[in-house]
Design brief:
about 325 residues, alpha/beta, Rossmann fold, eight-stranded mixed β-sheet, oxidoreductase, oxidoreductase activity
Length: about 325
């Protein structure tokens, strides 16, 4: 599968359903009371994760927002409380750094010590177009380490509580959300280049100036889609549903490493709230049931397509292969 075909696919989706979506069909008004339910949203100190956390809290849920910065997290918690003073829910900061695997278990243990249920985990945090020289604490390419490896380890530590919650929660309501991107369409053939990730994502996927970081971002976001499909297959008997949303083309701090998008992107990007609604659909919509387990979600809340070779690879065992690969390469954390 050529890079040009991947770019063509992404552009086609950009100019059709994913780039110019219809009005949201699932919004705050469609969400019932969430009293007693517990949610974790990573990267929720700003951007679309912040928008989702606000909605969940406004509906009386207990919400954990996970982030690296204590100051940013505390400010986000205060702002959400101030915007929704009548909420009977709770909101707390869970401090962790997905680019440093040693921080994840202590954070997960903190949540597990306080909660007896967990209704959804939204793996929202991520980095885009970071310099290719940047590495995670364990030596991974920063994008793959933050967007893929860190969320996988966090999910592993929280899995048992999700399984227990699914035993008594309403059918199909316990969810795991792995955030993807429209860039997933330009990932390598089959979605994952194993030669690249065996080198911790450091070997180049392209020698063209400025292209390598985007291909690595695309691979990491496609990996999130593959993770959702692998999760759906591996844990299909638990009652938990996993999905992978492209939240949309949005005005957020995710663009901080890309001068081009900062310079030009504001003319065709949408407010962050719309991405929060895509995630809201993925997290709560009753339209998502077991028949849609492992699905891709597109803006602003619809089941959508993925490149055919990636789907074929996943359906022929590739999704479970990748899940098991991650398991093997994150032992000890």
């Amino acid at each position: 599968m050529s890079l040009l075909y991947g770019i063509y696919t992404a552009l086609w989706q950009l100019v059709t359903s994913e780039g110019f979506p219809p009005k949201p069909g699932f919004e705050e008004k469609d969400v019932s009371d969430l009293s007693g339910k517990v949610y974790l949203v990573t990267g929720a100190t700003g951007g679309i994760g912040f928008e989702l956390a606000k909605i969940l809290y406004s509906k009386n849920a207990k919400v954990y927002i996970a982030g690296r910065s204590k100051d940013n997290g505390t400010a986000a918690v205060t702002k959400i409380k101030d915007e929704h003073p009548k909420s009977d829910g709770g909101i707390e900061l869970l401090q962790l750094d997905l680019s440093d695997l040693t921080t994840i278990k202590p954070a997960a243990d903190e949540l597990l010590s306080q909660e007896r249920r967990l209704d959804a985990v939204v793996h929202n945090a991520g980095v885009m177009a970071a310099p290719t020289s940047w590495r995670s604490a364990q030596g991974w390419d920063l994008q793959f380490g933050t967007n893929v490896v860190g969320p996988f380890v966090l999910q592993r530590h929280l899995q048992n509580l999700l399984v227990e919650t699914a035993k008594f929660a309403p059918k199909d309501s316990v969810r795991v959300v792995f955030l993807s991107s429209i860039c997933a369409h330009i990932a390598p053939t089959g979605g994952i280049n194993y030669e690249n990730i065996e080198g911790k994502g450091i070997p180049p996927l392209s020698n063209l100036p400025g292209v390598d970081t985007w291909l690595k971002y695309a691979q990491s976001k496609c990996a999130n889609t593959v993770m959702a499909k692998g999760y759906a297959e591996k844990y299909k008997d638990t009652g938990i549903i996993a999905v992978s949303p492209n939240p949309g083309n949005l005005k957020t701090d995710l663009m901080r490493h890309s001068f081009l998008l900062r310079a030009l992107g504001w003319t065709f990007l949408y407010p962050a709230r719309y991405g929060g609604l895509t995630e809201l659909y993925a997290t709560l919509s009753p339209e998502i049931d077991q028949s849609k387990n492992g699905s891709v979600i597109i803006p602003w809340g619809r089941v959508g397509p993925m490149r055919s070779d990636i789907i074929d690879t996943c359906n022929s065992g590739g999704a479970l292969k990748f899940w098991n690969w991650l398991e093997e390469h994150t032992q000890g954390f």
